[in-house]
Amino acid sequence: MHGIPPRRVLSLPLERLPEQTEAMERAAEPEVDDEVGAVLGWLEFHRDALAAKCEGLTAEQLVTASAPPSTLTLLGLVRHLTEMERDYLTNDLSGENRGRVYVTDDDSEADIENLDASMVDSSMARWQAERAAADAVITRYGSLSELSPNGRATIRAYLLKVLQEYARHNGHADIIRERIDGSRGE
Asked: Which domain of life is it from (predicted)?
C-alpha cells in the first residue's frame, strides 16, 4: 500500500502589507421583506461594494495586478461587470442587441486584460452609464416572473445572474484592494 505523499507547500514571496487604518465605508445590507426589494437592494449593495473597493485609488493602482499569479485588476473587474450589465440586463431585458462594450470576437478578454491607467476615467464613466441603462430597462417590468423578450428566462433569473457575478467578483476585489494598500471592508 502506498502512503499519501507529503503535502507540498507553495511559498510566494509576499511583501508586508501596510497596516490597515480604518474599514471602508459603503452601503448597508438591504433590510426588506419583499422579493423585488431584496433582489434590487442586493444588486445595489454589490455594485456599491465594488465602487468602494476602487475609491481613493490612483489610476495606476486600479490597473495593478496585486495578487500574482492572477492578472486581475480592479479596473478589469469594473469593465467585466460593465459587460455583464450590458449582456444580461441592458441587452437581454430590453430585447435590443446593443452589442458588447469591450469584448470582441477577436479578443474575448478585452474587458480584463491589457489595461492601462489611461483607460480608467472612460471605463468608470461607462460602468456608471451601463448601470443607469440597466436600471432604466429593469423598471419597465412589473414582476420578476415575467419572461425576457427573448423568452429564455425570467427577469429574476437575469438579475440573479448579474447579482452573483458581482458577489463572486467582489471577493476578488477584496483581495486585490487589500494587497494594494491594506484596506479592508465588507
From this structure: Bacteria
pLDDT at 173 over 70: yes
In a domain, 168, yes or no: yes
Work out how many domains the chain is built from and give that number.
1
* 90 in any annotated domain: yes
HEC assignment per residue over the chain? CCCCCCCCCCCCCCCCCCCCCCCCCCCCCCCCCCHHHHHHHHHHHHHHHHHHHHCCCCHHHHCCCCCCCCCCCHHHHHHHHHHHHHHHHHHHHHCCCCCCCCCCCCCCCCCCCCCCHHHHHHHHHHHHHHHHHHHHHHCCCCCCCCECCCCCCEHHHHHHHHHHHHHHHHHHHHHHHHHHHCCCCC
Instruction: Report pTM.
Output: 0.85
pLDDT > 50? residue 10: no
